Amino acid sequence: MDAAERRLARVAAHLVPSSFPVTPAAAPPLVPAPTAASSSSSSSSSPAGDSYRRVHGEVSAEPPEWRAATDESGKEFVDIIYEKAVNEGIAKITINRPDRRNAFRPLTVKELMRAFNDARDDSSIGVIILTGKGTKAFCSGGDQALRDSDGYVDFDSFGRLNVLDLQVQIRRLPKPVVAMVAGYAVGGGHVLHMVCDITIAADNAIFGQTGPKVGSFDAGYGSSIMSRLVGPKRAREMWFLSRFYTAAEADKMGLVNTVVPLAELEQETVKWCRQILRNSPMAIRVLKSALNAADDGHAGLQELGGNATLIFYGTEEAKEGKNAYMERRRPDFSKFPRKP
Ligand SMILES: CC(C)(COP(=O)(O)OP(=O)(O)OC[C@H]1O[C@@H](n2cnc3c(N)ncnc32)[C@H](O)[C@@H]1OP(=O)(O)O)[C@@H](O)C(=O)NCCC(=O)NCCSC(=O)c1cc(O)c2ccccc2c1O
Asked: Where in the sequence does UniProt note compositional bias of the Basic and acidic residues kind (predicted)?
């Protein structure tokens, strides 16, 4: 086989659906997938005996040891709990207002932003879990008791809608954010789980938008991301009717990645995080920005482009440019290939 034939064969192999063996002899033995918590769970769909699984294996299901964390200000958190797993790259941020079903006020959002910022800057952290305290709610949205004519008011004399800044922060954060949802994820709390990269739902989770019932709406990410996730018709249904949906219904709609028994929620979430952490951090970083790029327009391109620059700075070609400037000489790029 010459090079052209080999190339053609490689391309042809990619065009065959993965479940369709190229030759009967090449087909691996099909064994039942190990128990997946739900139909859409990902890790268990490849045959147990293949080399991929032998090489990459299962991740530990041991509970992590969580240690309280703070940011550079050292200021204690009031409305959230911020923790990092000892010796592994997972941060966990918990909205801690269970008596209000983890509704957020401006202070809650400010603290969430501080914690996310710290987790972003900490190079030992590769994935961040966002959750709510207790089993009754992930988050019930903005604290309606504090809603005024210009937003939510706690310690200021003016209102804020600062959860919108938090949404942008999560979307642009170059590390995966995993929503771990037990109980209600409704209103602005539902939007928060949607802007996360992955959602692991407990079987008691309830999802929905309440805005049109309480005189509110999220016409930003709360609408556009939802439409992408569940499709335009379902998104209209979710907003116009403001119904609540079970975890199983949300799974069917593509709103969540998997549904697990409540008692296994954190264990399963941590397993997903550990699986992400085994993979190339730069691949994950670039993929997150690539998956958002088209929808995010100029901001998406800017982020993806920033990743290209980040990677380019590590090359000899880029270093030659910088060194030449520092040495006051003309750069010599002649040794760098102009690749096809
Ligand atoms: C979440 C519920 C369905 C839970 O019902 P359940 O029967 O289990 O519990 P209770 O209703 O008895 O609640 C217990 C306790 O918590 C208080 N509480 C719950 N949610 C909130 C809340 N969001 N704000 C304030 N307080 C809340 C409740 O009053 C009880 O207190 P007690 O003192 O009586 O014990 C149900 O609670 C529920 O439907 N909650 C309201 C959900 C909701 O409508 N959220 C707001 C949507 S609007 C929004 O979130 C929003 C925020 C933004 O910042 C935006 C910014 C920009 C654009 C849009 C935004 C936006 O839409």
From this structure: 51-70
Same-domain status, 204 and 308: no
Q: 105 CB under 6 A from ligand 1?
A: no
CA of 107 to the centre of ligand 1 (A): 16
Can you tell me the mean pLDDT for 130-153?
98
Rounded to an integer, what distance in angstroms lies between the CA atom of residue 176 and that of residue 198? 8
Q: Compute the distance between CA of residue 51 and CA of residue 45 in angstroms, rounded to an integer.
A: 14
State the sign of the Cα–Cα–Cα–Cα dihedral 287, 225, 191, 198.
Answer: negative
Distance CA 140, CA 208 (A): 10
Pocket test for ligand 1, best of 110, 138, 144 (most atoms within 8 A of CB): 144
Q: Are residues 127 and 169 in the same domain?
A: yes
Q: How far apart are the CA of 103 and the centre of ligand 1, in A?
A: 6
Q: Are residues 209 and 319 in the same domain?
A: no
Task: Determine which residue's CA is closest to atom 34 belonging to ligand 1.
Answer: 100
Phi, psi of 164 (to 5 degrees): -65, -35
pLDDT for 30 beyond 60 = no
- What is the ipTM, given to two decimal places? 0.99
Residue 13 lies in a domain: no
State the total domains in the chain.
2
